[in-house]
Amino acid sequence: MRRSFVVLSALSILTVSIAAYWWPSALWLFVIILPLVVMGVIDMTQSKKAIRRTFPVAGRLRYVMEDLRPKIYQYFIESDTNGRPFNRLDRSVIYQRAKKEIDTIAFGTQLNVYDNNYEWLSHSLNAFDNSKITELPRVLIGGPECTQPYSASLFNISAMSYGSLSKNAILALNEGARIGRFAHNTGEGGLSDYHLQGGGDLIWQIGTGYFGCRYPDGNFNPELFAEKAATPNVKMIEVKLSQGAKPGHGGLLPAAKVNEEIARIRSVEVGKEVASPPSHKAFSNPIELMKFIKQLRALSNGKPVGFKMCIGQKHEFIAICKAMIETDTYPDFISIDGGEGGTGAAPLEFSNSVGMPLRDALAFVYDSLTGFNLKKHIKIIASGKVTTGFDLVKNIALGADLCYSARGMMMALGCIQALECNKNTCPVGIATQDPKLTKGLVVGVKKVRVANYHYETVKSACDLMGAAGITDPDKLHRAHINRRVSPKEVQTYLDTYPYVATGSLLKMPYPQAYKTLMDITSSQSFAPRFDQVNAMEFDWATKPTGRDLSLHDPSLN
Q: Where are the transmembrane segments (predicted)?
């Protein structure tokens, strides 16, 4: 192959040289030939890529095709239902609702309703017409110690930092949130000028790096936090314990990206590498976490404070619940991020194989809070591939009070699922800091699309609730959602996730599914106390088998 290239190059140069003797214009062929020869020589002499070294020039086509493969697959090969992470049907309905185009479908469903995991809503003959609603439902967030409760939408923008997203993307999201009266989570990158400029409601996320409220050594700075928490646009504070895309994994901001603007926003030094540790320095056990939440609530003058986590080891959440009881301190909300959550960049193993999926995590958290009689104080926010009205209804039925969406909101901005978020080459100017790309995202147009998408999605959820004979999201029940688990068996969410009786974890005997978890947990530590139980008998998979609709809504008996 190398020899063939050398022979072909020599023959081409010789042929053109001879031809130019009679036709001088033939010299123009060197404009094509010489660059190819130079490329081939470079390929033959470099040592990093074997295919280029062995197949000069021609070997480059392999990398071109590799780059084109996702685009070719998405547009020419995949069906409307088999795309990943989001299929064409889900992407299309987001685009249609954002642009206020027709979002109905013709000729019936393309889904195989007899496939395992096909899900549907149980409708009612006593349906309500919720399509004419003028005011979308809202949820009041704020527990006993909160003096500035926040009235939140059912559907909000999930955590995405400036830096991960462009300034134009942040501006469009925040201005869209202002138009639609819903909340925009800042992500752990801090309160940027672009979050504040749009005038939308903000949920300020505090991560393990304490960006925007830290001392130079990386520890939490209460004075700086209090100053920024007083910002009128900041409606709630969220402490990020872990995220679904890469739970238990810290982040790293390379020194080259820490310019003066990023350094000011994140309270770090210009030109120095910044690491987000995998865990917090401000607390090390559940009791200290509750004290930190109480401190943040006081420093923010009573604004709602909560935490976000992806469920990993169940006993850790039980330990947190015990700490709430012991300290008589409660977060105002808990955000549950499913293991299917997304991010601009995460290791493959963490994205694919770490973290409990949202459906299981949400049911566990709701049941645990109910068992400790804590749910009355705490609202639950669900996050993880939430894009449609049915996603909202499913999660609320499982136990959520409201939902976040990240990738759905990105698609409303114009994301085409190019899967280049981690390369700074996002073609639509969302997940990039390249000014040549970001200028393609026009804030004035995209902010309206974000607001449209939000409104139409919540409205579709209300329509679905009306079909089930429900006007209030609080009336959604696990029995309303059905799931095919085999060709001949259908279960409701209630069958799969039976409710736990209110207060049943405050006294013995505990529900069977929680017995070992209760035995091995302490409010003093996130670590399990295996000395309290025979480890050989420990069964993480224990599940309840009873069914009792009356535990949640006696009217469904």
A: 29-45
Question: Is the four-CA dihedral 13, 16, 22, 27 of positive or negative sign?
Answer: negative
Q: Locate tokens 């000729």: which residue?
A: 107
Q: Is-contact 149 305, C-beta < 8 A?
A: no
Taking the C-alpha atoms of residue 86 and residue 84, their distance in angstroms, rounded to an integer, is 5
Is the Cβ–Cβ distance between 59 and 68 less than 8 Å? no
Using DSSP, state whether 481 is helix, strand or coil: strand
What the block records as the tokens of 65 is 């095709």
Q: What is the CA radius of gyration of the chain?
A: 27
Domains and CATH numbers, the chain: 2-71 (no CATH), 136-450 (3.20.20.70)
Q: Which tokens hold the place of 451?
A: 């607001």
Residue 158 near residue 185 (C-beta atoms within 8 A): yes
User: Considering only 271-285, 305-319, 497-511, which range has the smallest mean pLDDT?
Assistant: 271-285
Name the residue with higher pLDDT: 175 or 60: 175
Distance of CA 419 to the CA centre of its chain: 15
Residue 223's contacts (CB-CB under 8 Å, 6 or more residues apart) are none
* 89-130 confidence digits (pLDDT tens): 888 999 999 999 988 887 888 888 899 999 999 999 999 887
The helix-helix angle for 389-398 and 443-467 (nearest 10°) equals 60
Q: Could you give the CA distance from residue 496 to residue 479 in angstroms, rounded to a whole number?
A: 10
The SS3 assignment for 380 reads: strand
Residue 171 confidence (pLDDT): 96
Q: pLDDT per residue over 499-539, tens digit each?
A: 999 999 999 999 999 999 999 999 999 998 866 555 434 44
